[in-house]
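Exercise 3.2. Students should predict the tertiary structure of the chain below and write it as structure tokens, then compare their answer with the key that follows.

Predict this chain's 3D structure.
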Amino acid sequence: MKLPSSLEAVINAGRRRMRVLWAVATAQRVLPAAAGVGLALAVLARLRPWTWPEPAALVAPLAMLLVVAVGAVAMRIEPLVVARAIDNGSGSRDALATAFEVSESDPFGARVLERARASVPADLGTALPVRIDWRPWAGAAALIVATAALVLVANPQDAVRDRAAAER
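Answer key:
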């Protein structure tokens, strides 16, 4: 399956849009868990005189967002998958995906490619909308605020760490 040159820009824009969709959907699912891990580490820092849990508590959600961003950039998305996603979102009944099956030299190839070009929405956002559910983001934000509060408020284990450092 060769990508028709006239549709390459549409497919590349759709691929970028699908990466954003994947990143948002993945972050919505994983960020609350990473924020929960951060909160658990902040609580652990209050129970044990270790120094590493507090910085790790603050880094956990940021590290997760970095991993999701790198994953979105590195993800390989086949052109036919992008075409099918655009077709499904725009309701064009596989007009764009069918264009991958024909060449411009075929008797009906020019008509199929013209139908594919006509089926592409002017704004890919209508065919591939980003749907954000704010509840996981709000929950993660609440957990991150609680983590930051636990890290910034005086920790009783600080005195234990100071005494241990003075004894050395």
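Discussion points: Residues 8-47 form the longest helix (40 residues). The chain is about 75% helix and 0% strand.
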